[in-house]
Design brief:
Elements (H helix, E strand, L loop, with lengths): L2 H33 L6 H14 L1 H25 L4 H23 L12 H21 L8
Helix pairs in contact: 1-2, 1-3, 1-5, 3-4, 4-5
């Protein structure tokens, strides 16, 4: 697989991860509103999710690109050193990247969690799982010809 091909797959992974993570964040925020008695219709859910993907998604994608870039570099080096399933290594790297990224964002920005849907433990875990899905997806999309998944 060429470097360009891997780069395209990485960018696709980042875009999909940012869209999914942003949408999940929105759903956790709306769930919090519903839990205190707000009425949120399905149309509202959809329009708010689309609004957040367009508005917050690109900035979140920059952070995700940086986090997954470092994590996938480490995963690539790790997968060359140990004989373990490549998708599992990348999934773990994606999960760690999302967790570290969210914790660091909060620390850098004066203790304020920037991703609203990650302010609860459930929301944070959902973001971390999305990172794992990103790693798994990238590993399967970019599988070297001589590697075994």
């Amino acid at each position: 697989m060429t470097r360009t091909s891997r780069m395209i797959r990485f960018v696709i992974t980042v875009i999909l991860t940012a869209a999914l993570a942003t949408a999940m964040s929105t759903q956790f925020v709306l769930g919090g509103l519903i839990s205190v008695g707000a009425e949120v219709s399905m149309a509202d859910r959809l329009s708010m999710t689309a609004f957040d993907i367009v508005g917050m998604g690109p900035l979140y994608a920059v952070f995700i690109l940086l986090g997954l870039g470092v994590a996938f570099f480490a995963a690539d080096r790790t997968s060359r050193l140990i004989s373990f399933k490549r998708p599992v290594i990348y999934a773990a790297a994606g999960m760690v990247a999302m967790l570290v990224m969210l914790v660091l964002m909060e620390q850098v920005f004066f203790g304020v969690p920037l991703i609203p849907g990650a302010r609860s433990l459930g929301g944070l875990l959902a973001q971390v799982l999305i990172g794992g899905l990103a790693g798994y997806t990238y590993a399967t999309m970019s599988k070297p010809a001589d590697a075994t998944a």
